[in-house]
Amino acid sequence: MCAEKLGADPVVEAYKRHIDRTLLRENLKRSVEDRVRNLMAMQALAAEARQAGKKALR
């Protein structure tokens, strides 16, 4: 079924109200390579935080 026939999803609309679109626009101005590098850096930070959390629980 086509999205236009379904109408707006109230859950999606509720989340959209809280999204800072300026950050999305700024990110889209970056090259694909820059966005991938940033994603990789965030993943490395998340992995480091997970390791620190595991170490703190020991």
Structure characteristics:
58 residues; mainly alpha; 4 helices; flat
For this entry, what is the oligomeric state of its chains? single chain
Distance between the termini: 51 Å
Strand content: under 5%
Unreliable parts: none
3D structure, described in words:
- The protein is mainly alpha-helical.
- It has one domain.
- Helices cover 79% and strands 0% of the residues.
- It is built from 4 helices and no strands.
- The model has no long low-confidence stretch (mean pLDDT 90).
Secondary structure blueprint with pairings:
Blueprint: H1 3-6, H2 10-16, H3 21-29, H4 32-57
Quick structural summary:
The protein is an all-alpha fold and 58 residues long. The protein has four helices and no strands.
